[in-house]
């Protein structure tokens, strides 16, 4: 007989911290490094308490240099460690891009598997927190376009734990995108009995529906759930698929949903042009063409540099813009 | 006690007492590059080392010549020769212990093979049948790095990881004068000094970054002086004096292994050949300059000392030359065999397990290859029939 321990509300930030802590406790090869991750516990406090518990060698404050942090992590991984690096903000990760594109993503391949790089790159991303310039980018398309990387992003407290554990356990480099506006979101989650480690590469249906599918991830999942509730008033029963993993992409779950509903809208904060939505819409169209009642639409951030905080609400996909898109899915053909 | 604690935390004193944290004087490189050959100190050099260096340098020069010849025969896509820089290449490999790591740049094939990597496997990148042809873990040699200076932070991270695990492993990272302008050079040196990582940075200042001379690359008093800004010692050495380079690098490796932290070594040398076989050096430098450096040739410098000591016997010369020729003949023979290629390798190592969409693309390529093979077979069959007709011919 199992005892049910009541799950209390916990934040995504707490689940992430717990995932790092458990990974470090389970495997001495796991090392955390980055700017302010030691004494301070990170600017978002995700590494809070790790330096105290595991020592500053295991959770190390580094000089302020992202290419150096990631480059050093590559060397550490070459020596058998399992580094987890923190990039302080999305746009501050760009200096590390050369290391990421030329070495992290390619090392296993260029050495025919002799030098795998089991490292995790945590990047707080996305907007909606009133951040000033360079603090709100959705940079996932760059990482998706770089073969050799896995790219995952949680939308729930449980997934934050399960996916981060999976990322750290992976023998491939994983870009782990943390939706920073969800850091303080709460869910019933029991830190004494953490959620299972989720396999990387599986999408999940967050809400079942029959009318159309919203394909989304990270910070936009909650917005889509809200839109789905609001859509009931319009008579639409929307399905919401949380992709969770952009690379590998779960065509199976996505296509199963779209074949069921016949309509799809991709929703994300990143730019539409050259963004993840284009790839997703193409994949769905290629695979589900005869099941589609309407073109796959995209609701995304505008193709402008991320706006100043006082204007960001116009940029971010909101409930109304999502419902407008759902309304354009050629329903007239139904009647 | 953690490594970070051993280092002693930096506590700033309040103004107006701001001052340099450490005395920069001991970190400064000497005004003149360190030299042994042709000086009184040469008498102290170990004869076995002199002979070893000589044999390896002769072999290295032969390798450069053979590899350059292979580009002309279409057997190598490109080859960046290190002729004139053999002293640095060989010394860098010889000062390392078995468990130490070498982090080469693309011009450092000689160091890579001097470390024990198969000469053919070391050329995989430049032949173009794959990117890295050897297992880096087997010889503790990182892949040849083409993006400049990006391998330096790897050396720092690896050395740091080894130290955290209590292993006395040293990493030696090689970079050129042009590479010192890259951001990764700065970040790597800074990390190494802050972490006191057991790393030796060897800058081969060969005068040119492709065509751009050092004067357009830096305004520093010398590249070795850059060390001082990071809080590590800078050493300047005559890069064509194999004994001096060996001595300075061996010192730096010992220093690092003993927990003394990183060293930046600038070796003054010269790239006698063009940047690669595809480059035309006459567009940016004169013959006279090249001739001046040819008179300061690393092999000739060693041979002068060996002759003076009566060590350059006919036997020694012949053995060195024969070894080099054997290596070159083997290289030639093996490089003249067509590379064995398997297109399916494209998908084999991108991830530990191919992703579903890579599996789809792999199937696509497999189908293309099958169709190609079928077409070839059909064409051959047609040809056989045609030949049969011709052979039978009209009676």
From TrEMBL, chain A:
Q: Which EC number(s) does the record attach to this protein?
A: 1.2.4.4
Q: Which cofactor does it need?
A: thiamine diphosphate
**Per its UniProt record, what InterPro entries does this chain match?**
THDP-binding, Transketo_C/PFOR_II, Transketolase-like_Pyr-bd, Transketolase_C
* SMART domains listed in its UniProt record: Transket_pyr (SM00861)
* Record's keyword terms, sorted: Oxidoreductase
Gene Ontology BP terms: branched-chain amino acid catabolic process; response to nutrient
Query: Which Gene Ontology molecular-function terms are recorded?
Result: branched-chain 2-oxo acid dehydrogenase activity; magnesium ion binding
Domain Transketolase-like pyrimidine-binding, first and last residues per copy: 10-185
Looking at the keywords, is Flavoprotein present?
no
Top-level class of the enzyme under EC nomenclature = oxidoreductase
Q: Name one Pfam family in it.
A: Transket_pyr
| Record's protein name | 3-methyl-2-oxobutanoate dehydrogenase (2-methylpropanoyl-transferring)
Species in which this protein is naturally found:
Streptomyces tagetis
What does the record give as the organism's lineage? Bacteria, Bacillati, Actinomycetota, Actinomycetes, Kitasatosporales
From TrEMBL, chain B:
One biological process term in Gene Ontology: branched-chain amino acid catabolic process
Pfam families (alphabetical): E1_dh
What transmembrane ranges does the database entry give?
none
Q: Which InterPro entries match?
A: Alpha-ketoacid_DH_E1_comp, DH_E1, PdhA/BkdA, THDP-binding
Oxidoreductase among keywords: yes
Q: Which Gene3D superfamilies match?
A: 3.40.50.970
Q: Which cofactor does it need?
A: thiamine diphosphate
Renumbered residue ranges of the record's region Disordered: 1-32
Enumerate the GO terms in the molecular function aspect: magnesium ion binding; oxidoreductase activity, acting on the aldehyde or oxo group of donors, disulfide as acceptor
- Whether Oxidoreductase counts among this entry's keywords is yes
Q: Which UniProt keywords apply?
A: Oxidoreductase, Pyruvate, Thiamine pyrophosphate
Using the record's annotation, list all stretches that form the Dehydrogenase E1 component domain. Answer: 64-328
Question: What is the protein name for this chain?
Answer: Pyruvate dehydrogenase (Acetyl-transferring) E1 component subunit alpha
């Amino acid at each position: 007989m199992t005892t049910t321990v009541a799950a209390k509300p916990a934040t995504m930030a707490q689940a992430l911290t717990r995932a790092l802590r458990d990974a470090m406790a389970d495997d001495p090869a796991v090392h955390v490094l980055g700017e302010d991750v030691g004494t301070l516990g990170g600017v978002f406090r995700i590494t809070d308490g790790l330096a105290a518990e595991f020592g500053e060698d295991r959770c190390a404050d580094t000089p302020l240099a992202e290419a150096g942090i990631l480059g050093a992590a590559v060397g550490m991984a070459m020596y058998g460690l399992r580094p987890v690096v923190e990039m302080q903000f999305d746009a501050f990760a760009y200096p590390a891009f050369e290391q990421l594109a030329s070495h992290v993503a390619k090392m296993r391949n260029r050495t025919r598997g002799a030098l795998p790089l089991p490292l995790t790159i945590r990047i707080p991303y996305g907007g909606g927190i009133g951040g000033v310039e360079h603090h709100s980018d959705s940079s996932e398309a760059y990482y998706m376009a770089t073969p050799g990387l896995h790219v995952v992003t949680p939308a729930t407290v449980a997934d934050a734990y399960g996916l981060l554990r999976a990322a750290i356990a992976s023998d491939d480099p994983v870009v782990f995108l943390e939706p920073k506006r969800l850091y303080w979101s709460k869910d019933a989650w029991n830190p004494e009995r953490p959620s299972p480690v989720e396999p990387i590469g599986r999408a999940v249906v967050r809400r079942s529906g029959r009318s159309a599918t919203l394909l989304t991830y990270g910070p936009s999942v909650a917005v889509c759930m809200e839109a789905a509730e609001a859509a009931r008033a319009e008579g639409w029963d929307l399905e919401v698929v949380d992709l969770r993993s952009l690379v590998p992409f779960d065509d199976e779950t996505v296509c199963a949903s779209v074949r069921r509903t016949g309509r799809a809208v991709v929703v994300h904060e990143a730019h539409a042009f050259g963004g993840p939505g284009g790839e997703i819409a193409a994949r769905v169209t290629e695979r589900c063409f005869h099941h589609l009642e309407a073109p796959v639409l995209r609701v995304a951030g505008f193709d402008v540099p991320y706006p100043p905080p006082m204007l960001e609400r116009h940029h971010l996909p909101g409930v109304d813009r999502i419902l407008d898109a759902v309304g354009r899915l050629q329903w007239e053909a139904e009647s | 006690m953690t490594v970070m604690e051993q280092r002693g935390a930096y506590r700033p004193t309040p103004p107006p007492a701001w001052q340099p944290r450490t005395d920069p004087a001991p970190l400064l490189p000497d005004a003149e590059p360190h030299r042994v050959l042709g000086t009184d100190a040469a008498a102290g050099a170990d004869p076995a080392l002199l002979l070893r260096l000589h044999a390896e340098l002769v072999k290295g020069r032969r390798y450069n010549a053979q590899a350059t010849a292979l580009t002309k025969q279409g057997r190598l896509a490109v080859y960046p020769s290190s002729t004139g820089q053999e002293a640095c290449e060989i010394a860098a490999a010889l000062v390392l212990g078995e468990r130490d790591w070498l982090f080469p740049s693309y011009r450092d094939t000689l160091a890579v093979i001097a470390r024990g990597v198969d000469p053919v496997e070391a050329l995989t990148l430049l032949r173009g049948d794959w990117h890295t042809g050897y297992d880096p873990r087997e010889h503790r040699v990182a892949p040849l790095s083409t993006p400049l200076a990006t391998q330096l932070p790897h050396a720092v991270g690896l050395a740091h990881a080894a130290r955290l695990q209590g292993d006395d492993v040293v990493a030696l990272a090689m970079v050129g004068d042009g590479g010192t302008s890259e951001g990764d050079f700065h970040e790597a040196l800074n990390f190494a000094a802050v972490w006191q990582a057991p790393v030796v940075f060897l800058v081969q200042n060969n005068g040119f970054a492709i065509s751009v001379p050092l004067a357009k690359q830096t305004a520093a008093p010398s590249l070795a002086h850059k060390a001082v800004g990071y809080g590590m010692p800078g050493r300047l050495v005559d890069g064509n004096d194999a004994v001096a380079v060996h001595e300075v690098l061996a010192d730096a490796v010992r220093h690092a292994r003993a927990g003394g932290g990183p060293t930046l070594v600038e070796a003054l040398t010269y790239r006698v050949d063009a940047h690669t076989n595809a480059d035309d050096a006459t567009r940016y430098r004169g013959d006279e300059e090249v001739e001046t450096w040819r008179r300061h040739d690393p092999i000739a410098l060693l041979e002068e000392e060996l002759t003076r000591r009566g060590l350059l016997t006919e036997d020694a010369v012949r053995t060195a030359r024969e070894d080099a020729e054997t290596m070159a003949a083997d290289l030639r023979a093996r490089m003249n065999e067509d590379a064995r290629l398997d297109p399916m390798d494209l998908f084999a190592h991108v991830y530990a397990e191919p992703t579903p969409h890579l599996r789809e693309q792999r199937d696509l390529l497999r189908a293309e290859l099958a169709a190609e093979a079928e077409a070839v077979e059909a064409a051959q069959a047609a040809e056989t029939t045609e030949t049969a007709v011709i052979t039978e011919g009209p009676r």
